[in-house]
Amino acid sequence: MRRFAALYAQLDRTASTVAKREAIAAYLHDAPPADAAWAVYVLGGGKLRRLATATELRTAAQAATGYAEWLIDASYQHVGDLAEAIALLLPPGDGALADTPLQVWMEDWLPALGKLDPPARQLQLQAWWRALAPQQVFLLNKLLTGALRVGVSQRLVVQALALWSQLPTDLIAHRLSGDWQPHAAALSALAEPDSGEEHLTDRPYPFFLASPLEQNVEALGDRNDWLAEWKWDGIRAQLMRRSGEARLWSRGEERLDGRFPELETAAAALPFDGVLDGEILAWNAAGHLPRAFTALQKRIGKLKPGAKLLADTPVRFMAYDLLEHDGEDLRQQPLRARRERLATLLQDVSPALMLSPALPATDWPALALEREQSRARQTEGLMLKRLDSPYRVGRKRGDWWKWKVEPYTLDAVLIYAQLGHGRRAGLYTDYTFGVWDRSHLVPVAKAYSGLDDAEIATLDQWIRSHTLERFGPVRSVEQVHVFELAYEAIQRSSRHKSGVAVRFPRILRWRTDLAIRDADKLDDLRRLAMD
Amino acid sequence: MRDDLLQPRSQGLYCPAGDFFIDPRWPVERAVVTHAHGDHARIGNAGYHVAAAGSALMRERLGEEAVIETHEYGEAFTLGDVRVSMHPSGHMLGAAQIRMEHGGRVVVVSGDYKREADPTCAPFETVPCDVFVTESTFGWPVYRWPPIDAVIADLLSWWDDCARRGVPALLFCYALGKAQRLLAELALRCDRVAHVHGALLQPVQHYRDAGIALLPTVPLAENARGTAMAGELIMAPPSAANTPWMRRFANASTAFASGWMQVRGNRRRRGFDRGFVVSDHADWPGLLRSVADSGASRIYVTHGDGDVLTRHLRELGHDALALEALGES
């Protein structure tokens, strides 16, 4: 792990993407291919099945340091990262295992840890910690508990692989898509010349992602150059049919096979082979509408849904693009041509496969009016796609825009604060907000994002000097500050004390102009949740 | 806390029997000041008692008009009914612990201190006492300072790396104390030159005047730009980070020398490429060791979030209290 730890240190020591790309490419040149394959996998966000829980790590750390449980926890709260806190707490190891290759850790040792019974696992962890330098302890703990997160995106890994292999990034992105397995052979396959046939392998195409529309819509030019559709609020997916066999890939490039049998059946029954890009939606057939995302969540978790669930919560595939037809990669054709072919192909197929309709409004003002209907149509707003555009790879600005509806907002009072994690470690950045239930404030939302660094620093100082009570890492604070929160939806909830659940709350602005009596009332939120 | 030697008051720690304050926050008649940092040495007090080793720095901080009485380390003097003496705390040039003796009892206020050797100041002295008031700036067990040799070696290899890449090495550090310690440690290991920001000039001169060997320094030229400074070490106070001043060195590799750099999130949040863990405060083992060495039967913990250290000391069997909890504010 020594070489990988050195790479990690290099990546951690620069904010420059160029420097990171070069560091990864240099590592790929030097490292044994089996190790390099694993490095590509974990840097790209891949992880092993969870092999030890955070509680197990804390318990082992207690045993290894002799510190009380509260002291381990206080250190974790202060550092904001358990893997790092433990690495800093342990006595330095002797480095005896520093040269064990990454591949051995990932393929043999770590999986074996998962098979031990809990007491043996505790001892094994401590034995490893005693044999590694602090930075490697940190990496080991990260690998055990989840993703690495070192400011390296999947895209950066793709760019580094392209630099290393001297191949185009789009080809690398496609070869990495699907469930790429980290083996030496798979790594060398990434660098092989393009055969021209490889789009037919069992992999999804890299998804083309839209950017949020920030400019005035009129700036997009002629309305007739653009396709406008609803922005569906479901699961983005590619539905493939090759040689009669159906496959479903999520945007996270995970196989969804088995979860949505009605879609696979419908795809298998198609009279052609192809790859459709679209959205999986829980469907309200009577209303000709999608159902709320919460309905779809019931299906996501079920690997083999039963008859009752299938009947109660049917799903549909709302297709909006055709990437491949009878073995031909269509991605370089203009959207206009792909859509035309898609519309023709989807005539007279199973109702489970629908064509995302093009919105007819003929000019931008009319389209803006249509967008006002988004919530009533159970959508998040509009998608605008340039009719001349190819199907690109990743998030490239310019051809695909998402024009979401304005979020709902509410004014709420800061009532609790908790220390943040990662980059915000040591600062009070996790806030709980309350609204009025008659004479007192009840918590309705937690939010972590939306303030700038200066506001965070100011609020952190204020929280420290205006704490009422401490409950472990949480402080209740004087009820003074009002914030405007944005959110996407509000629903009734029996799991929340307030009786409502607010979806995706974030801070819009600090309302220094408002007093706490101006904050919203719970009764009003409840009414909204009923509509 | 009912004690004729020490009471926490809103202005700071007060010694009733001697009628003086230690590092008062607001102007008082008589101030005993531990060291020359701005949050300890404040202007406006009628009279000051300071350690002789730091007198030039104090004069600079407090102004020509200030009435300052200096005392050699270990030399006792009397304030009211109290026998007072100042002892090196190892924090920076002239930094002192305050020993107070009255009616057979001894109280020691540590001020800021560290246990590691520092070529710019006298080393921490263990002063036996009945009551020990300790700082706890780094009062979590995650803070254990790496050996300074390793840190300076790391810093030098970063500097070399910047030279190879043709970019300036921009090192942020506190202008008084930390900067001089780094320059002194560097002087022991290399014979290069450091460029220093204007805020560092006077403190550097004071240290040189006190006879401390520092790396040669040149004032950073007004018109110095990134390209001309390729491979050069530039030292600047952290307050210069993220200001327009920085634009001149847009391509620089940036680093911060501070104990807080032990935690990765602190470094990432502040956007530094590198963090060098160098602190002039006691780390966790240093705090525990100093408490034990003092032999005190009662410990007061001051500064920062003292809760963690206080609770740990109590579990170790010490009679420890957080001073904050006693109504310090």
TrEMBL record, chain A:
<keyword id="KW-0227">DNA damage</keyword>
<dbReference type="GO" id="GO:0003910">
    <property type="term" value="F:DNA ligase (ATP) activity"/>
</dbReference>
<keyword id="KW-0235">DNA replication</keyword>
<dbReference type="GO" id="GO:0003677">
    <property type="term" value="F:DNA binding"/>
</dbReference>
<dbReference type="InterPro" id="IPR012309">
    <property type="entry name" value="DNA_ligase_ATP-dep_C"/>
</dbReference>
<dbReference type="InterPro" id="IPR026333">
    <property type="entry name" value="ATP_dep_DNA_lig_pp_1105_fam"/>
</dbReference>
<dbReference type="InterPro" id="IPR012310">
    <property type="entry name" value="DNA_ligase_ATP-dep_cent"/>
</dbReference>
<dbReference type="GO" id="GO:0006260">
    <property type="term" value="P:DNA replication"/>
</dbReference>
<dbReference type="InterPro" id="IPR016059">
    <property type="entry name" value="DNA_ligase_ATP-dep_CS"/>
</dbReference>
<keyword id="KW-0067">ATP-binding</keyword>
<dbReference type="GO" id="GO:0005524">
    <property type="term" value="F:ATP binding"/>
</dbReference>
<keyword id="KW-0132">Cell division</keyword>
<dbReference type="Pfam" id="PF01068">
    <property type="entry name" value="DNA_ligase_A_M"/>
</dbReference>
<dbReference type="InterPro" id="IPR012340">
    <property type="entry name" value="NA-bd_OB-fold"/>
</dbReference>
<dbReference type="GO" id="GO:0051301">
    <property type="term" value="P:cell division"/>
</dbReference>
<keyword id="KW-0131">Cell cycle</keyword>
<keyword id="KW-0436">Ligase</keyword>
<dbReference type="Pfam" id="PF04675">
    <property type="entry name" value="DNA_ligase_A_N"/>
</dbReference>
<dbReference type="InterPro" id="IPR050191">
    <property type="entry name" value="ATP-dep_DNA_ligase"/>
</dbReference>
<dbReference type="InterPro" id="IPR036599">
    <property type="entry name" value="DNA_ligase_N_sf"/>
</dbReference>
<keyword id="KW-0460">Magnesium</keyword>
<dbReference type="GO" id="GO:0046872">
    <property type="term" value="F:metal ion binding"/>
</dbReference>
Automatic annotation (TrEMBL), chain B:
<dbReference type="InterPro" id="IPR036866">
    <property type="entry name" value="RibonucZ/Hydroxyglut_hydro"/>
</dbReference>
<protein>
    <submittedName>
        <fullName>mRNA 3'-end processing factor</fullName>
    </submittedName>
</protein>
<dbReference type="GO" id="GO:0004521">
    <property type="term" value="F:RNA endonuclease activity"/>
</dbReference>
<dbReference type="InterPro" id="IPR026360">
    <property type="entry name" value="Xnuc_lig_assoc"/>
</dbReference>
<dbReference type="InterPro" id="IPR050698">
    <property type="entry name" value="MBL"/>
</dbReference>
